[in-house]
Amino acid sequence: MFNLGNVSVPSSSAEGEKRQVKVLILGSGPAGLSAALYAARAELEPVVLTGMELGGQAGLTHTIENYPGFPDGVGGPELGELFQKQAERFGAKVEFDSAVSVDLSSRPFKVTTENGEYLAETLIIGTGARPNHLEIPGEYEFTGKGVSYCATCDGWFFKDKKVVVVGGGDSALEEGLFLTRFASSVTVIHRRDSLRAGKVLQSRAFNNPKVNFIWDTVVTEAAGNGKLEHLKLKNVVTGAESTFEADGLFVFIGHTPNTQMFEGQLEMRDGGYIVSNHLMETNVAGVFVAGEVADNHFRQVVTSAGMGAAAAIQGTHFLEKVAAAE
Questions:
Q1: Spatial CB neighbours of 133, under 8 Å, sequence gap ≥ 6
Q2: What is the pLDDT of residue 58?
Q3: Which helix (H) or strand (E) holds 123?
Q4: CB within 8 A of 41, min separation 6: which ones?
Q5: Using CA atoms, how far apart are residues 32 and 312, in angstroms rounded to an integer?
């Protein structure tokens, strides 16, 4: 049994029971699993709630080429698995469960999940972000029938097909280049006349014979009969409208942080990103944050992992101070 104040609960739980932990980590992406590694090495027996996607957004990326230590690149799912194995080696527990609500009004923090409830002495939030949608007619109707947000997941279904990628950042070009393995052509549609992606990715895309570009243009509608067949486009400079035949539409226009359950409890800035200081501390003592749930600038696997490590280190210091004061 663990004891915290007047609360005494079992150290393990069946469905519906309360479980008390020293460190609870929400999210199993690079931020969450790096935090788990550092907390586990501090012998804090952290518990990681995976959320809906083990490995986070990085786990959906076919190849990650800019994570140190992998000169030939590494698959996103493989990197996530390595993160998990290393954290578990030191005693972290990874639970396939999702938080549905939190109460940060007092410690221990109460986190209700799909399967039960946790009482956490410290909380590290690494819930990441979800893909933005175009919010156009037909988008939801044809999701899974031509519209996708993950080339790694769905690329195989578009062998010898014409696909469109919307976006101009690293993710758009990375996933677009991956799609050239299957599709007969990949057309990148971008609302501006230049890309935000890194120069190496731009060079690869411009030199790939399967990749074409349509500039200064947005997709205004997805249409078809039972499946996606064509897109309606609009040039944002001239206002000219056109129709473009396509079998697939892949959308990579940024992300929205998964912070809805923390609204009204944690300080947030525009866009819903959680505010933290350089020590990964939020405005609630004992609650720390890491990764894209707080970072809308760098958004890299390596920076998310670093933030996770920092959050766990500060969480350890926090618990040490609490113990010393008791």
A1: 139, 140, 149, 251
A2: 83
A3: strand 117-125
A4: 90
A5: 9
Q: What average pLDDT does the structure give for the chain?
A: 92
Judgement on whether residues 47 and 192 belong to the same structural domain of the protein: no
Q: What is the pLDDT of residues 119-133, one digit of tens each?
A: 999 999 999 998 899
What count of other Cβ atoms lies within 10 Å of the Cβ of residue 313? Answer: 17
Q: Collapsing DSSP states into helix, strand and coil, what is residue 326?
A: coil
270-273 long-range Cβ contacts below 8 angstroms, 24+ apart: 271/296
Closest CA to 307 of 280, 286, 284: 280
Residue 4 has pLDDT above 60, yes or no: no
58 or 219, greater pLDDT? 219
The answer to whether 320 and 326 are in contact (CB under 8 A) is: no
Catalytic residues: 150, 153-154
Last residue of a domain, one of 226, 251, 276: 251
* 201 and 289 belong to one structural domain: no
117 and 261 share one domain? yes
- 230 and 246 inside one domain: yes
Same domain, yes or no, for 80 and 140? no
Q: What is the 3-state secondary structure (H, E, C) of 258-296?
A: CCHHHCCCCCECCCCCECCCCCCECCCCCEEECHHHCCC
So what's the pLDDT on residue 16?
Answer: 57
Neighbours of 27 (CB within 10 A): 30
Do residue 189 and residue 272 come from a single domain? no
The answer to whether residues 81 and 165 belong to one domain is no
**Number of structural domains in the chain:** 2
Regarding whether 214 and 245 lie in a shared domain, the answer is yes
In the predicted structure, residue 43 carries a pLDDT above the cut 60: yes
212: domain range?
133-251
CATH number at residue 177: 3.50.50.60
CA angle 39, 260, 120 (to 5 degrees): 30
Task: Give 93's strand partners.
Answer: 47
Among residues 53, 60, 62, the alpha carbon closest in space to that of 32 is found at 53
Residues paired with residue 274 on neighbouring β-strands, in sequence order:
268
Query: Among 251, 267, 291, where does a domain finish?
Result: 251
